[in-house]
Structures are given as structure tokens and as C-alpha cells.
């Protein structure tokens, strides 16, 4: 069993210092969180992976640029820019070789960018990570709420919209799960969160045509309750990606690691055990 010692580091990157919680020791596994939230969305999942995995692992839980306890985002960026920051982080960490990447939503988008380089990644797990740009209806909804976010922060209708996008109704009514999301929203500044929203959601581009360039074993995880990344969407993406598998987790929306950690841990362990080397 992996010893769950934990410490924190601030990793310098071109998008500022990234707050990382490092748990255990062994093969490096990066867990990169979704937009709006931070590394605490992985808290229920990591012990399940550490307890059951027959290979010791060092879990590096990273707050994305401008979010959580990472440095504020000071300028507009892109997912490609976030991937460059992730490369900086990998260079700064003593990884001992390619890492296993586990990304939720935004984290999966970053992983898709990195997964063309097997010198960086050994494997990719992209959870609830649409490969297309956001739909026009969702874009309009975000653009209506964005000025309120900039003015007052994640309050009122902004907070309600974020919770609705992240969690199923059942999860949102569960105090522990809802609290993880709400606490995450309080950490970044209004300006930083607004810049992250523009950079990593509104400006997200369609990367479907890049899927054939992925060069590492991949697992695309869909949930049964996210409209813009359905099981059928994940199947189509996997069909375009060399050496890709697809899985659907029930009872979840965007934050699958938070909502269904047991089912996700079982799927991740099975995927890892199938990797060679």
C-alpha cells in the first residue's frame, strides 16, 4: 500500500506558480482539476487508488492556472498555453520518466494536448472532457453571467450556474460534495477566475482533428448526465484516437472524481493494470 504522506509545493510555470499537493511516493501520476474547482475534488479518489494499486505511486494534485491556491492568472491564455505551463511543471518535478495523466474536464483538455508526446505522458485519462468547442447556447449563457462574475464574484446566479454545471441534482444536495465546489470558488480572485473562464472555456477550440495524433494509451470517461460530453461523444472521440478506450460512469455530471470516486477508481485501476511497463 502506498504511504499517504503529503506535502505541498509551488511549481513555477509561465502562467505563474501552480499549487500542488504531493501524496505518496513512486510512479508519478498527475491529477489536474476541472475549471472553477481545485485539487480537493480528488480527495475521495486518491486513497482508493493508493490502497488498491499494486504499484507505488506519487500523486501530484495540481490546481490549474488562476484557480484554487495557484497564483492568479494575470493575462488571457489558452488551453495550449495551459499545456505549456503543464510542461513547465513536468520539467520542474522529478518525474523519472513519462507520467500517467488524469485530468477532469479542463485537466483532460490539457492532457489531450500533451498526449501527442510519449516522452511526456505514459498514459492519458480524460474525464468529462469534450473535444469540441462549447456549444452556442452554453456560450450565450456564460457570456450573460460573466459580467456578474467580474463584478461580484461567484455569487447568486453565477454560483448556482456553476454548481448546476458541475454536479447532478443529487450531488448538489449532498452537503460534503457541494461544499467542495463552493469552497473552491472562494479561493481565486474575481479577475483571475474571469480570465480563466475566458481562456479555458469560452476560447476552447475544437481538437477533434488532433485526436489521431495522440500517441499514448488513453481512456475517455463520460458521465451519464453531461449533455456536451455524452457516452456517444466519447465513443466517437475514442474511435478517432489510436489505442483509446471509452467508459461511462453513471450518476455523475462533470465532477466524476468527486461524485463517483469508487466507480472511477475501479476503472482507473483496470486501465493502469493493462498498461505495459
Descriptive overview:
The chain is α/β, with parallel strands linked by helices and 277 residues long. The chain has eleven helices and eight strands. Strands 1-2-4-3-5-6-7-8 form an eight-stranded mixed sheet, with helices on both faces. Strand 5, helix 3 and strand 6 form a beta-alpha-beta unit. Helix 4 (136-152) runs antiparallel to helix 8. The chain is globular and about 50 Å long. The two termini are 19 Å apart.
As a percent range, the share of helical residues equals 40-55%
The separation of the N and C termini measures 19 Å
* Secondary-structure class: alpha/beta
Low-pLDDT stretches are: none
The H/E string reads: EEEHEHEHEHHHHHEHEHH
Order the strands across the largest sheet as they lie in space.
1-2-4-3-5-6-7-8
Instruction: Determine the number of helices (DSSP H or I, runs of at least 4 residues).
Output: 11
Could you describe the largest sheet, including whether it forms a barrel?
Answer: 8 strands, mixed
Q: In percent terms, what proportion of residues is strand?
A: 15-25%
Gross morphology? globular
Number of strands: 8
- Average per-residue pLDDT, rounded, comes to 94
Radius of gyration: 17 Å
Amino acid at each position: 500500500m502506498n504511504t499517504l504522506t503529503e506535502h505541498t509545493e509551488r511549481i513555477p510555470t509561465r502562467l505563474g506558480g501552480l499549487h500542488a499537493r504531493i501524496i505518496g511516493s513512486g510512479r508519478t501520476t498527475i491529477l489536474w482539476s476541472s475549471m472553477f474547482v481545485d485539487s480537493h475534488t480528488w480527495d475521495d479518489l486518491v486513497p482508493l487508488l493508493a490502497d488498491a494499486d499494486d504499484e507505488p505511486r506519487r500523486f501530484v494534485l495540481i490546481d490549474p492556472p488562476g484557480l484554487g491556491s495557484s497564483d492568479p492568472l494575470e493575462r488571457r491564455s489558452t488551453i495550449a498555453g495551459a499545456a505549456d505551463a503543464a510542461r513547465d511543471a513536468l520539467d520542474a518535478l522529478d518525474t523519472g520518466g513519462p507520467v500517467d495523466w488524469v485530468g477532469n474536464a479542463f485537466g483532460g483538455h490539457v492532457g489531450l494536448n500533451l498526449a501527442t508526446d510519449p516522452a511526456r505522458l505514459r498514459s492519458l485519462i480524460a474525464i468529462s472532457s469534450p473535444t469540441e468547442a462549447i456549444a452556442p447556447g452554453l456560450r450565450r449563457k456564460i457570456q450573460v453571467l460573466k459580467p456578474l462574475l467580474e463584478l461580484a464574484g461567484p455569487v447568486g446566479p453565477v454560483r448556482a450556474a456553476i454548481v448546476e454545471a458541475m454536479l447532478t441534482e443529487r450531488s448538489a444536495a449532498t452537503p460534503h460534495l457541494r461544499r467542495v465546489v463552493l469552497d473552491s470558488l472562494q479561493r481565486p480572485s474575481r479577475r483571475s477566475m474571469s480570465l480563466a473562464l475566458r481562456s479555458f472555456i469560452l476560447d476552447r477550440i475544437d481538437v477533434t482533428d488532433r485526436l489521431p495524433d495522440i500517441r499514448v494509451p488513453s481512456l475517455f470517461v463520460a458521465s451519464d448526465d453531461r449533455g456536451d460530453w455524452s457516452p456517444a461523444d466519447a465513443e466517437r472521440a475514442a474511435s478517432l484516437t489510436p489505442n483509446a478506450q471509452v467508459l461511462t460512469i453513471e450518476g455523475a455530471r462533470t465532477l466524476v472524481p468527486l461524485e463517483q470516486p469508487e466507480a472511477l477508481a475501479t476503472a482507473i485501476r483496470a486501465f493502469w493494470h493493462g498498461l505495459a511497463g
